[in-house]
Each structure stands twice: as structure tokens, then as C-alpha cells.
Design goal:
Order of helices and strands: HHHHHHHHHHHH
Oligomer: single chain
Distance between the termini: 59 Å
Shape: elongated
Radius of gyration: 24 Å
Number of helices: 12
Largest sheet: none
Strand content: under 5%
Number of strands: 0
Structural class: mainly alpha
């Protein structure tokens, strides 16, 4: 029993040790790099330590490469830190020594940082940035400019085809399916967006293409994305046993193609018996 307790305790000790080491490294980074503005992030507060640390280290990456992609990720990390601060601001600290004020100041800084990042990104015309501005801030001009790129090589990536599909989801189901399938065709082995499986399953189901809906639900399941349980799948689709087996075999083939980065929509049967 003592040995068992030791093995249970060891991971905790390792995690704590890692946290302390990361904290020392982060403090050193802040001391060495005043441009990271760590003092505005309430770095001595025990609350929100993990999202704050992630943000600080990513700010360091942004200073090395201020690419649009890095700035978009910075916006996401600032938003995550801000959400944590909003929750922390509701906690009554034991030590009242300016703790609440410091949290409030950090919260205001986060809001200002979001505005700054959006302002900087607004100068960019890349499709990824236009999609970010449209989807995250509701910028209608960015949406219009993004949609005008439809059919151009600029949107001929897995990520941008999926982004375009999100626009058509409630407008044109056939086009949504076309874009989702093409997004998978453009996907490599290392950039598989599993949200596509769920979207394909639900869209095919709404279009009453139940066989394809089932296939994509099974593909999602193979990627550990559970849409419904196996029992619910059986009840939901109600195929005969031999048809389930045929569809399962097709789903296995589709999964292999997707994992290999060789998926083609044309490989799916056009009709089902």
C-alpha cells in the first residue's frame, strides 16, 4: 500500500516541480524582456497562472515573428486569460492588499490587448486574418472580402475550405457538403480537422443521406469523436445487420484514406443498395 501511495504521489511531485521550474523560467524571461509587459499581467497572483504563463511565452514568440498567425493565436490566449480573470475577480481574496484592484487592472489590460491585436490585424488582407476578423469580431467588411475570394487559389487550403463551409452551413447544404469534402481532400496527415467529420455526419443526416451520415459518424468515432453511442446509432439509422456491416467496412476504408492524407470524395459509393 505504501508503494502504491508513492506511485500516486510521484506524478504530483513531478507536476509541481515542473510548475515551479516553469515559473522561474517565466520570471527570468519577464526580467530579461521588459517589452513583454509582464508587469501588466499581475504575475504574482496565484490565480490564472497557467493561461498567464502561456500568454507570456507566446508574446515572446510574437516578438520574434509578428506573423498574422502568431497574432491570431495571441488573441486567443489573451481571451483565455481574460475569461480566467473574470472568474477570479469574483473570488474574495483572503489578503485584501490591492489583490482585487490588480486583478481588475489586468482584466482591463486584457481588453485593451484584444483591441490592439484586432487593430493590427485589420491592416492585413490575408484570407486567414479576414476569416478571423469576421468570425471573432463580426467584421462584415472582412466577411465580404473573404467571400469574394471564393473560387480563387487563396482559399484552396483545408483550413479555408472549412472556414468557407461555415458560412454556407445554414444557407446551402449541398455546397456545405462540397466544401467539407474538399477540405478533407486538401488535408494532410498532420492537419486533420476532426470537426469536419461531425459536420459531414450532421449535414448528410439533415439531407436524408443516411448511409453517408452513418459512415461519417463511424469515421468520427474512429478518431475518438463520439457523436452518439453505438446503440443510439443502431436505433437512429435502423439498417439491417448486413447493411451495417457493409457501411462499417466503407467507414474503415475512409478512415484509412483520411489518416494517410489521401481522401477523395469520389471514392465513396454514389448509391447504396
Amino acid at each position: 500500500m505504501k508503494i502504491a501511495k508513492l506511485f500516486i504521489a510521484l506524478p504530483s511531485l513531478i507536476v509541481l516541480s515542473g510548475c515551479f521550474e516553469d515559473r522561474r523560467n517565466t520570471e527570468q524571461l519577464c526580467n530579461d524582456r521588459p517589452e513583454l509587459r509582464c508587469e501588466q499581467l499581475n504575475i504574482n497572483d496565484g490565480q490564472c497562472r497557467l493561461p498567464r504563463t502561456d500568454l507570456i511565452w507566446h508574446r515572446f514568440e510574437v516578438h520574434k515573428s509578428g506573423s498574422d498567425a502568431n497574432k491570431i493565436k495571441e488573441y486567443a490566449l489573451v481571451s483565455e486569460y481574460k475569461r480566467c480573470l473574470e472568474l477570479a475577480s469574483q473570488i474574495q481574496p483572503i489578503d485584501q492588499n490591492n489583490v482585487k484592484q490588480k486583478r481588475f487592472d489586468a482584466l482591463m489590460h486584457s481588453s485593451e490587448e484584444q483591441e490592439r491585436i484586432v487593430s493590427e490585424l485589420s491592416l492585413s488582407r490575408s484570407p486567414e486574418t479576414l476569416y478571423f476578423l469576421w468570425s471573432q469580431t463580426g467584421d462584415e467588411d472582412a466577411q465580404r472580402e473573404f467571400l469574394q475570394m471564393e473560387g480563387s487559389p487563396k482559399l484552396e487550403t483545408a483550413e479555408m475550405q472549412y472556414a468557407l463551409a461555415t458560412f454556407y452551413t445554414n444557407r446551402n447544404q449541398e455546397k456545405t457538403l462540397q466544401l467539407l469534402n474538399h477540405a478533407l481532400e486538401l488535408s494532410g496527415r498532420s492537419n486533420i480537422n476532426t470537426e469536419i467529420f461531425k459536420s459531414l455526419a450532421s449535414t448528410y443526416y439533415r439531407e436524408n443521406q443516411r448511409e453517408l451520415a452513418y459512415i461519417w459518424a463511424k469515421v468520427a468515432e474512429s478518431f475518438e469523436i463520439q457523436i452518439v453511442s453505438d446503440k443510439e446509432l443502431q436505433l437512429l439509422y435502423g439498417f439491417k445487420k448486413d447493411k451495417f456491416q457493409k457501411l462499417d467496412a466503407i467507414a474503415d476504408d475512409v478512415e484509412e484514406m483520411v489518416r494517410a492524407g489521401k481522401y477523395m470524395q469520389s471514392s465513396l459509393p454514389a448509391k447504396f443498395d
